[in-house]
Design a protein that fits this description.
The chain is mainly beta. 15% of the residues lie in helices and 45% in strands. The protein has 4 helices and 17 strands. The strands form 2 sheets. Strands 2, 3, 4, 5, 6, 8, 9, 10, 11, 13, 15 and 16 form a 12-stranded mixed beta sheet that branches. The protein has a 5-stranded mixed beta sheet with strand order 7-1-14-17-12. The radius of gyration is 25 Å and the shape is elongated.
Length: 247
Amino acid sequence: MKRFRYPYLFITAMLLLVTSCSKDELTLPSKVYFHFGMTPHSDIENDEVFKNGYESTGQPGPISFSIEEGTLVIAAIEFDGKRVQGQDVYFMSDFPAPVVAKLHEEGTQATVDFDIPQGIYKRIDVSLHLGNGQDEIPLVMEGTFNRPGRGPVSIRFEFRFDDIITIRSTGGAANQEITLRKDQPSTAMVQLNTGSLFALINPGVFMNADISVENGQNILRISNNHNRNIFNQIAARMNNAFTVVFE
């Protein structure tokens, strides 16, 4: 019986070594860069009366609006990942200062990246903590409202609340699983779908909105204090307007 003892010990030791190496591999970091962007949006009044000219003025041209620029202020990013193998991964960023993302430029004032344990993730939730508790507005969207016969007006949507937006991430080509590799940096693209935010807003609604004059310029401001009925329709869609895609 003794002659079989050492081979068994050797096989057991090898299995333990392989298991240990496998666990060590799952702790190795994968570099993930976070980028931020937006999809511009434009819309035109669909009603035939407005297409041929605004009814009350008789002026030619349709009512339309477009949203082309956006600024997002992020105090922290929360990562909650469930892996197929290995322990789940959770962390929250510790930024020295809030990240200010120019969404229309896909740029930030500093690189946002994390070393995240590699592996196959069956689920990743990313939570954006908006705002910084100071004067910076967490989300601003800007564009132009075209009024027939009255000239263009600047649009400025302001979301002034510190809030947390939680997004279920996807992989490239909408894959359910997300693979992070130690030797291959990944990009997490955080995208604001402006069309989703403004999907329920008909351009004709803006004709009845309050227009302010600031520094000699006409501006259609939409916030919790200005044109609140329009603001509420847009703000209600915030949680569904963001996507995160890992590539």
